[in-house]
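Attaching the record inline, Q. Sequence:
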Amino acid sequence: MKIEDLYELYITHGLVDTDTRNIRKNTLFFALKGEQFNGNKFADEAINKGASYAVIDEAEYKTSKKQILVKNVLETLQELANYHRNQLQVPIIALTGSNGKTTTKELINAVLSTTYNTTATKGNLNNHIGVPLTLLSMNNTTEIGIIEMGANHAKEIELLSKIANPDYGYITNFGSAHLEGFGSLEGVVKAKSELYDFLRAHGKKVFVNPKDAKQVAKTIGIETISFEESINFTEANPFVKLSYKKTMILSSLIGAYNFSNISAAITIGNYFKVPLERIKKAIESYVPSNNRSQVIHTDANKIILDAYNANPTSMEAALESFSKLQTNNKTIILGDMFELGEYSSKEHQNIVNLTEKLGLEQAFFIGENFYNTLTEHKKFKNFYEFEAYIKNNPINNRTILVKGSRGMALERAVALF
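Structure, as predicted:
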């Protein structure tokens, strides 16, 4: 089937699903495959649950005209998303980076949605499947699209850029994340800059933080929109406070590192002519969730839960910001950082050393990588050892930072305090 014909079916039905557990009536089901599953096997189930058609790529599962056989389901989904994007007469903003992608995307969406009908990446569905699904969730009511792009290997951002065909781009930062896949920090910079390469080649524009030398260097040859000069950092104790055009804005975001995320949202809002009072209200109303810099008050402690993900760059920023909080009785609970490859031992030891340098006296390290570091602080091979220790040695009246990679699931620690 030609992509134009498939597109007519998509326009008629307006829905796309990839999981039979959440099938919607009259949707198009795309039978994706992975290491542990084969969506082709569920094509009939999808039809029986209400899907109008199932797109498959294995002939043995074609049982009726409702099964559409293609060469590759994933590539067809991506091609359909790109075809749809090119029919949309709306600006699309793409953003990537090592840290702060999702928070920045949510802030940008919060600001722009006060004035426009926006469609943005849900959660962090920012990969080769999530980006197409986000594009296909846009319709003729969408006025601005906001696409988050994630990657842990070279050429992934290049692919996502080709699918989304963005008009604007922003890279939050270049940090030591996914070193196992990128090979080095230089590899990270090169891979994330694939977004810049696409925008440069197509005569598009980028938003850039003029204080980030790497960003500036990589945007040569592209039309740039610099951060608003009148945005000034005030404090982060614990929440980030800043001024913009003599207007004070008090966010609900912890850590000075979030200043650049907020600045990006203000700059983009201003570029799209969102009134200042709406920008202020949107930022002040945004409350982080999903284990990202959440502030949780329990009966005994105040917890800063930042356990959605972690890498050396974000861990360092969190520790330095936490050390500057004007409060006593600080405790840090850090879990292993994943996907660091050959750099893992060195980077975990660096975090331990930084903890000691910053004078953070009560620290707990959890996971095999931290367990192999040299430190006088308490360390545990896994969460269960830590849990047993805390139950016998309760912590009270402390401000606690909890941070680690997603696989450590350190949000479990909240129940202990």
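The chain has three domains: 3-71, 88-285, 294-416. The chain has a mean pLDDT of 94.

More tomorrow.
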